[in-house]
Write a structure and sequence with these properties.
Blueprint lengths: L2 H14 L12 H10 L5 H14 L3 H5 L3 H8 L5 H17 L9 H5 L6 H10 L10 H9 L8 H11 L5 H14 L27
Helix pairs in contact: 1-11, 2-6, 2-8, 5-6
Length: 212
């Protein structure tokens, strides 16, 4: 590991801790899969509000698979893009129910074969449920990894590959958890709080006036 990378990770460990946490509320693997699918273009806080009622109404993958499309659309409407999300949820949970006996698969290829499941969602499942070292590239990770010079790529899959080379495996999952906190509180997309940033000197976009 490069000295510079180690220094950045040490600061993140110190500032945000090394506890594994998930910001989406769930009790079972299929619930985390559904919540992660709903979190696309939506805040985790809003998803948690929606799934509180959703998971009481639909108590298994089979229940979602058998849901009425229009009714499910209304159930998840606050998460946005609800037409596509509802259609994908029903198709995904049908496969979970019929092909996998209500068990969420762990293999990347099987997960990404499910409707509405891309690498980001698959890696959330692999990391949180199966504890497979996985790099999750969300909007915070994409933005901040670029600012830190860990990647010059824009495509999430290429960013994922760059981070897998740059970061030690024991930080693959942890990095995402820390960067979400960092991105929400300090290194925001608009008006980042550069004056409060402990990684200022490592930031490729930092200017003398503290503007990015």
């Amino acid at each position: 590991m490069k000295k510079r990378t180690k220094e950045i990770l040490d600061i993140l460990d110190s500032q945000f801790g090394t506890e594994y946490k998930c910001y989406l509320n769930y009790e079972t693997p299929w619930q985390l899969l559904a919540a992660t699918m709903l979190s696309a273009q939506c805040t985790d806080a809003r998803v948690n509000i929606v799934t509180k009622d959703l998971f009481q109404k639909y108590t298994s993958p089979g229940a979602i698979a058998a849901a009425d499309l229009k009714e499910l659309e209304e159930d998840i409407r606050p998460t946005g893009f609800y037409h596509n999300k509802a259609k994908n949820l029903i198709a995904c949970m049908r496969d979970i129910h019929e092909k996998y006996g209500d068990e969420v698969p762990s293999a990347l290829e099987e997960l990404t074969s499910l409707a509405g499941v891309g690498r980001k969602t698959a890696n959330v499942i692999r990391g949180n449920i199966y504890h497979v070292p996985s790099v999750v590239v969300d909007t915070h990770v994409k933005r901040i990894s670029g600012r830190l010079g860990f990647t010059k790529q824009e495509d999430p899959e290429k960013i994922e590959r760059d981070l897998m080379k740059e970061l030690p495996k024991d930080h693959w999952i942890l990095y995402n958890i820390q960067i979400i906190q960092f991105g929400r509180t300090i290194c925001t997309a608009r008006n980042p709080k550069c004056g409060d940033c402990s990684l200022q000197k490592y930031c490729k976009e930092y200017k003398i006036k503290g503007k990015v």
